[in-house]
Write a structure and sequence with these properties.
68 residues
Length: 68
């Protein structure tokens, strides 16, 4: 697997984690748990944005990574 594919797979995993945290926050009846899940979802959003920037850099630097 190429570096570009690995980074994009990481991004997909982060999106999945973020979605799972959102579901957990919605389904939780405990307000403290909801807040915790939401906070962690925000952390995942920040990490996801950083990885998306890296994907963009890879696509600009290496033609073979475009369109993954």
């Amino acid at each position: 697997m190429t570096v570009g594919a690995n980074v994009k797979q990481c991004l997909a995993t982060l999106k999945s984690i973020e979605a799972s945290l959102s579901t957990l926050a919605s389904n939780s009846s405990d307000e403290k748990a909801q807040r915790l899940f939401h906070e962690q979802m925000m952390v995942m959003e920040e990490i996801k944005e950083d990885i998306m920037k890296r994907v963009g850099e890879l696509e600009r630097e290496e033609e073979q990574y475009k369109g993954f």
